[in-house]
Each structure stands twice: as structure tokens, then as C-alpha cells.
Automatic annotation (TrEMBL):
Domain named Glycosyl transferase family: residues: 205-335
Keyword Glycosyltransferase on entry: yes
Protein name: Glycosyltransferase family 4 protein
Sorted UniProt keywords: Glycosyltransferase, Transferase
Single GO MF descriptor: glycosyltransferase activity
Transferase is among the record's keywords: yes
Location of the Glycosyltransferase subfamily 4-like N-terminal domain: 35-191
InterPro entries: Glyco_trans_1, Glyco_trans_4-like_N
Length: 365
């Protein structure tokens, strides 16, 4: 049964824990973040350390030095004979496989952590959980995927426990993982600060097809508000063919901004537009916008109806551009104080850290 034990109030009288935090091997954890998963890892590690816990982050090379990331094993150059194998998967797949395989083999021979928290999207930390001497908690950040689903089917429940970033995501996994604790991703309320608002609406995040920025642009034009976009462009072809032709006039691409500049941009906007074309597992940009006091207009898809309420956002039917245009107009009339309050009460880092610390302790009992 899906549960929600993630309430504030961790027992600070308990001794600190040693936590191994498994992150993405593909992208470094540094600002400006490659995506929400990297931002989440940074916030979780920082929040845990602020509580006095010892945190070892296992991640990609080139991460923020202040995070003290222990880089995962890097794949040596493959032999020419191996590369001639016609069944060889893409280079990034092999590199990630080597990184997580090496990490899990190292962890299986040591007992340096009280608990290992897997925040990656890779299957090996789940498949090899039973080889570790310490309990492994995996946070499910996505809908079911073939590789991860396969690993979970073979995973012994005595060696692993699971959290999900939203009730929506927990329901998607419930046929395979019947006991999941819901822990919403948190944002640091002292870093995502309220702004004055009133300016041109903003869309921010990874510019990739599943985020639907082109629909947000069309909706903003229909609403007559214009739109400012910000974020990385990992899919160059998508940006070139779907976004660039729509730029100009009242629609501007601001670039991949630093945290400071992004907070200022989001806080200056009357509305944040969120336009997922997939079942968004959580939507960290929603929480970040609310923390800036910026109401949200978005598609009622994935976890968005769960994160927002009637005082902090307006939702349209999925892929309904005309409906999203109306939502932008209506969201601009909502209270910025109510938006900030929603972030404070539902998606703060403190609440998230409390919930995970409770799960860490429960996994060891």
C-alpha cells in the first residue's frame, strides 16, 4: 500500500548517520545543473550535512568541489576488438554500466556507510543491493522503465526499500512495489526567494521534447503575454527545429542561467508555465517557482495536480494549448503569498530531509 510517512520532525537526539548517496554518473553535480535530478542530489546532500550527518556522494566527474563528490570508476578505453562487436550499445551506456558496476563492487566489500541511498536512475544499484552489508534505499524518480523494472523484480525486499517522489509515481510502481513511501523532492527556501513578479511569464527547465516548451510558447503567444525561456539544451536537434523558429518578438531564450540569475528571472515573472508532454513524476520546477512566489500555469499531467492547489496554480488539459493560454491569464491573478505558502508547507528541503532520515533509521532497525 502506498504510504506517506514523510512528515517533519526528525529525532535530532539520535546519533548522526553515515550515508552513501548514489547520484548520476553521466552529469556532474554543479550549477547550473543539468537537470532536476542533479539539483535534487545537491539539495539533499547539503540538507543532510546541515543536520550533522556524514554524507559521501558518489557521482560524475567535474562536480562542485564543495560537495566533495567521490567520482565513480571511469571506463578505460575499450579495445578495438570489443568495439567491433556489432551488438555493442552506445558509449554512454557502457560508461554508465562500468561506473555503477565498479561502485557497487567497491561498496560490497566495505562497510563505510550506515545506509546507501540510491538516487540514480540506473538498474545496477537495485540489482546488486543484496551484495551490500548495509541497507539500500532507492528513490523512484521516474515511471517504470524496462531495465529498472527488471532489476526490481529480482530484488529481495530484505535488502532494499523504496521511496517515490510523488503519489502519482508511487501508483505507477505499485503493481511491482506495493510498499512505497512518498517523499516529495524539496527546494531550499532560503535559496529560492520570492520576487516581485508582474513580468513576462517564464518557462524554465531542460529543453527536451518531453518538457513541451514549444507548446508553452504557443500558449503564451495566444495569451498575449510573451514568454522567457531558460535552461540547458541537451537535445540540439529539438532546439533547432522546434524552439528556434518560434523565438523572436515577445519570446526570448535567456540561456542556461546560474542559480542566482534563475531565481531572479523566476521571481520577476507573473506566471511560470509548465508544459510536460509526458507523465511528469514530480516537476521540481513547479516547487521552485512556488518558492519564488510565482503561480504556475500548466498541464494537468503526472504529479502537477498533486503539487499544486487552487491557490497556487491553474491547470489545463494535457496538450491543450488554448486551455494553457487561459490558464496563464488566470494564474497571473493568483496570490504570490499563497504560492510561497504552498512551497513552505508541501515541498521544502527540511520536510524532505526529515522524511529520508526517518527512512534511513527505519531501514537499520
Amino acid at each position: 500500500m502506498t504510504g506517506s510517512r514523510g512528515l517533519p520532525g526528525a529525532d535530532l537526539a539520535c546519533p548522526p548517520l553515515s550515508i552513501g548517496l548514489i547520484a548520476s554518473a553521466r552529469y556532474p553535480i554543479r550549477e547550473p545543473f543539468a537537470g532536476g535530478l542533479e539539483a535534487h542530489t545537491w539539495q539533499l546532500a547539503t540538507g543532510l550535512r546541515a543536520r550533522g550527518h556524514e554524507v559521501t556522494v558518489f557521482g560524475g566527474t567535474g562536480s562542485d568541489p564543495s560537495l566533495r563528490v567521490e567520482a565513480m570508476p571511469v571506463l578505460p578505453t575499450l579495445s578495438a576488438q570489443a568495439r567491433r562487436d556489432v551488438s555493442m550499445p552506445p558509449d554512454y551506456f557502457i560508461a554508465e554500466h562500468h561506473a555503477y558496476l565498479g561502485l557497487m563492487m567497491d561498496l560490497s566489500t566495505s562497510a563505510v556507510c550506515d545506509v546507501v541511498h540510491n538516487n540514480s536512475l540506473h538498474y545496477l544499484p537495485v540489482a546488486m543491493a543484496s551484495t551490500l552489508r548495509t541497507p539500500v534505499l532507492t528513490t523512484l524518480h521516474t515511471p517504470p522503465t524496462p531495465w529498472l523494472e527488471s532489476a526490481i523484480r529480482l530484488c529481495s525486499p530484505e535488502h532494499a526499500s523504496f521511496a517515490a517522489v510523488s503519489a502519482h509515481t508511487a501508483r505507477q510502481w505499485s503493481p511491482l512495489v506495493p510498499s512505497i513511501t512518498v517523499v516529495r523532492n524539496g527546494v531550499e527556501l532560503d535559496r529560492w526567494l520570492p520576487g516581485r513578479g508582474g513580468g513576462t511569464p517564464v518557462w524554465f527547465g531542460r529543453l527536451v521534447p518531453e518538457k513541451g516548451a514549444e507548446l508553452a510558447i504557443k500558449a503564451a503567444r495566444a495569451a498575449g503575454t510573451g514568454l522567457r525561456l531558460a535552461g540547458p539544451r541537451p537535445d540540439a536537434e529539438y532546439f533547432r527545429h522546434e524552439i528556434e523558429p518560434l523565438l523572436g518578438g515577445d519570446v526570448e531564450y535567456e540561456g542556461h542561467l546560474t542559480h542566482h540569475d534563475l531565481v531572479r528571472l523566476v521571481g520577476s515573472a507573473a506566471v511560470a508555465v509548465v508544459s510536460p508532454r509526458w507523465e511528469e513524476p514530480y516537476g521540481l520546477v513547479v516547487a521552485e517557482a512556488l518558492a519564488c512566489g510565482t503561480p504556475v500555469a500548466g498541464f494537468a499531467r503526472g504529479a502537477l495536480p498533486e503539487v499544486l492547489d487552487e491557490h497556487s496554480g491553474v491547470l489545463a488539459a494535457p496538450d491543450d494549448v488554448a486551455g494553457l493560454a487561459r490558464a496563464i491569464t488566470r494564474a497571473a491573478t493568483l496570490s504570490r503569498a499563497a504560492a510561497r505558502h504552498r512551497a513552505e508547507t508541501t515541498c521544502s528541503v527540511d520536510r524532505m530531509v526529515d522524511a529520508y532520515v526517518r527512512m534511513y533509521r527505519e531501514s537499520r532497525s
